[in-house]
Design goal:
Helix 3 packs parallel to helix 5 and helix 8 packs across helix 12. By secondary structure, this protein is an alpha/beta fold. The longest helix has 19 residues. The protein contains twelve helices and twelve strands. It folds into two domains: 150 residues, 3-Layer(aba) Sandwich (Rossmann fold), CATH 3.40.50; 134 residues, Rossmann fold (3-Layer(aba) Sandwich), CATH 3.40.50.
């Protein structure tokens, strides 16, 4: 089953669901003839789409809206905040090609502040699946939640078998480690798996957490990692500000804890466009480059204690 097949199944079973798009049909191109009047394309008008979705939600519908992630979260931000967020309406936002998945596009099309923007809206839930399987396990839970939500759509295939028992606010703990714990969300999960393997080949005890839901965050999983690992590494295709690194900092302050945290994120810059493999290499997000940075940082910490 893929994204389109899942949303078709759910919409046919529950007439409250309405599928909407701002002329972004890549994921749902076969649904108009099936859903008929419950498929609405507003054209390249993200703000209008969100306003209409809010109106439908006020009348008992569950709109699932689609647009490129950068235009959905930036161009329509005020409408999401005001029309959807303040009223706490169950509008479901599907952002296409977020983060590095927008590999060939320049800064105007790069959604690398989307998590920060969406999690700042009270009541908004934020989900960043590792791959298609991870996303499909989550969507039925997300779409039936009474709250508004934002999903970083990820249709990348993977051989990794995720835990199908998805829970909102629950991270997927792949492994526990005493030397370092890798915290990641979204498409960088695949490269982070490689990082884990490379670090383990160096004799390190490595934990790996697929955060899955950025809001609500799994506080217990993160606090356990803080207590049991010498160092945490946050890995994200997002600006350093406002994403997972900021969430960890807020959580540590809330619980009056300290931790060694190495953030791997985009610090005050957009990424250079290219093929995805080129972007990952240029920005230092391959398994090899991330493991090198982590080993170097661990070595620095060890030397400083001597």
């Amino acid at each position: 089953m893929n994204y389109e097949e899942l949303i078709k199944k759910i919409a046919l079973e529950d007439e409250r669901f309405v599928v909407m798009t701002a002329e972004n049909r890549a994921l749902i191109r076969n649904l108009p003839s099936v859903l008929k009047e419950r498929f609405i394309d507003t054209g390249i008008t993200e703000q209008t789409m969100i306003g209409a979705a809010a109106g439908l939600a006020l009348r008992g519908r569950i709109p699932v809206v689609h647009a490129l992630a950068t235009f959905l979260t930036l161009r329509a931000f005020e409408f999401i905040r005001t029309d959807v967020g303040i009223a706490n309406l169950p509008v479901k936002l599907s952002g296409f090609i977020p983060g590095f998945l927008s590999d060939g596009n320049g800064p105007t099309h790069q959604a690398i502040e989307d998590v920060s923007l969406m999690r700042g809206i009270p009541g908004m839930q934020v989900f960043c699946p590792a791959d298609e399987q991870d996303m499909l396990y989550a969507l039925s839970h997300i779409w039936t939640s009474p709250h508004p939500s934002y999903v970083r759509v990820n249709i990348r295939k993977s051989d990794f078998q995720h835990d199908k028992n998805f829970e909102i606010g629950k991270a997927e703990v792949i492994s526990n480690g005493t030397d370092v714990t890798l915290l990641v969300y979204g498409m960088l999960f695949e490269e982070t798996l490689k990082t884990k393997q490379l670090l383990e080949s160096e004799g390190l005890s490595v934990g790996l957490i697929n955060v899955r839901t950025l809001k609500p965050i799994d506080e217990k999983a993160i606090l356990d990692a803080v207590k049991n690992s010498q160092m945490l590494v946050t890995i994200e295709d997002h600006f350093l500000t406002g994403g997972l690194y900021s969430i960890i900092a807020e959580l540590l302050l809330k619980h009056q804890l300290t931790a060694n945290v190495l953030p791997l994120a985009l610090n005050e810059r957009w990424f250079k466009p290219g093929l995805l493999s080129e972007v990952l290499n240029n920005e230092g997000f391959t398994g090899e480059k991330m493991s090198e940075k982590i080993i170097k940082e661990l070595y620095k910490k060890t030397v400083s204690k001597i």
